[in-house]
Design goal:
By secondary structure, the chain is α/β, with parallel strands linked by helices. Helix content is 38%, strand content 17%. The protein is built from 11 helices and 8 strands. It is globular and about 50 Å long. The model has no long low-confidence stretch (mean pLDDT 95).
């Protein structure tokens, strides 16, 4: 028996309803994109984190769409996009994303921002698209060949009701959001929707040196935007900044105090200011 559809979180329903939906090839299936803002404006492509969807950007899209043509993709194997063909490597998955961007934007130059696993994909896409990419902004990403501690998380797939909500709250506090008081109903709803739709095993790619290798081939201005309390980077956040600057002299690296891994949600205003500084360089 097919599982019942998961309702759209209340926090993202209005954004989804206001979006233009696009689909691009993804093996035998489709990759799903959502767009906001004036299609004639400068494009800004957003790529979400592992076990996520475009909903990772819920607190950023409306603001950015006042100035940019925002395109947020559901990475293959996550959200509403179909599962990509094997092998599930950084090269294969980022190639599908890059081809999707080309199908939607042609040769138009665009900005690229990625969060966590989406930052790894953004780096790989930028390495492919060369001079077409105006800026690359990466938040909270691994893939740099650096050691990181293991963050214990609770399994949620077998849980329902209050037990599932409690597990989501634990996982958000352990991995995503530094201040437990900022784990609100919206964050819990989005986390639940995202995990119910996740099929791609993104940690296997995020722990590879895929982003490190891509950074050396990126010609667009590069920026890192990380939360000071990002559990995936502790205890050596400074090593991430060193890698960015070694791979691209002139790269910027901003640290947002008090914020955790899901920095653009927990500290949306500070992230937006940092992102705009990055975009202005392009």
């Amino acid at each position: 028996m097919r599982a019942a559809p998961v309702p759209e979180p209340a926090a993202t329903r209005a954004l989804r309803d206001a979006a233009r939906r696009h689909e691009t090839p993804n093996g035998a299936g489709r990759m799903v994109w959502h767009g906001w803002g004036d299609p004639a404006a400068a494009p800004l492509v957003l790529l979400h984190g592992g076990a996520g969807s475009w909903r990772h950007w819920v607190r950023n899209i409306a603001d950015l769409a006042r100035e940019f043509h925002v395109l947020a993709g559901d990475v293959p194997g996550l959200g509403e996009s179909g599962t990509p063909p094997e092998p599930h490597t950084a090269e294969r998955v980022s190639g599908i994303i890059a081809d999707g961007i080309a199908a939607l934007l042609g040769t138009t130059r665009y900005h690229l921002a990625g969060f966590s696993f989406g930052g790894v994909m953004a780096g790989c896409v930028a390495a492919r698209h060369g001079g077409q990419v105006r800026t690359v902004s990466i938040a909270g990403s691994g893939g740099l060949g650096l050691a990181r501690g293991i963050t214990p998380l609770m399994k949620v797939r077998h849980l329902e009701g209050a037990a599932r909500v409690a597990a989501h709250r634990h996982n958000l506090a352990a991995l995503m959001i530094a201040d437990p008081a900022k784990i609100d109903a919206a964050a819990l709803e989005i986390q639940d929707w995202n995990t119910r739709h996740a099929r791609l095993r993104t940690p296997l790619i995020s722990r590879s040196p895929a982003l490190y290798e891509a950074l050396g081939a990126i010609r667009a201005p590069l920026a890192g935007i990380y939360g000071a309390c990002d559990a995936t980077c502790l205890p050596d956040l400074a090593a991430r900044a060193t890698v960015f600057r070694e791979r691209q002299p002139g790269a910027t690296f901003e640290v947002i105090e008090g914020a955790g891994h899901w920095v653009q949600y927990e500290a949306a205003d500070a992230y937006a200011a940092a992102l705009r500084r990055s975009l202005a360089r392009g």
